[in-house]
Amino acid sequence: MILGSLRIISVPLIWFPLLHAAQPEQREKYEIGGGGISLHWPEIDEDLAVANLLSGADQQAA
């Protein structure tokens, strides 16, 4: 059963220094939280809000 539509979001990895520096295996181990509103990488202690990704917020400029 499909509950909603699928959207793929692409942003430059360089915007997220912890993710950029992480090993590919670490980046593959993430959790979706808050009912789909956040992403968490436990091995590198990184959290991202999906709303920020959708808005195209450049994390380096923040």
Strand content: 15-25%
Mean pLDDT comes to: 84
Please give the radius of gyration in angstroms. 12 Å
Please tell me what the overall shape is: globular
Helix content: 25-40%
The largest beta-sheet arranges its strands as 1-2-3
Largest pleated sheet? 3 strands, antiparallel
Helices and strands, in N-to-C order? Answer: HHEEEH
Q: What is the distance, rounded to the nearest whole angstrom, between the alpha carbons of the first and last residues?
A: 39 Å
Question: How many helical elements?
Answer: 3
Extended strand count: 3
Structural class: alpha+beta
Low-confidence parts: none
Descriptive account of the structure:
The protein is an alpha+beta fold and 62 residues long. The chain has a domain at 13-55. Helix content is 26%, strand content 18%. It is built from three helices and three strands. Strands 1-2-3 form a three-stranded antiparallel β-sheet. The radius of gyration is 12 Å and the shape is globular. It starts with 16 loop residues before the first helix and ends in a 7-residue tail after the last helix. The model has no long low-confidence stretch (mean pLDDT 84).
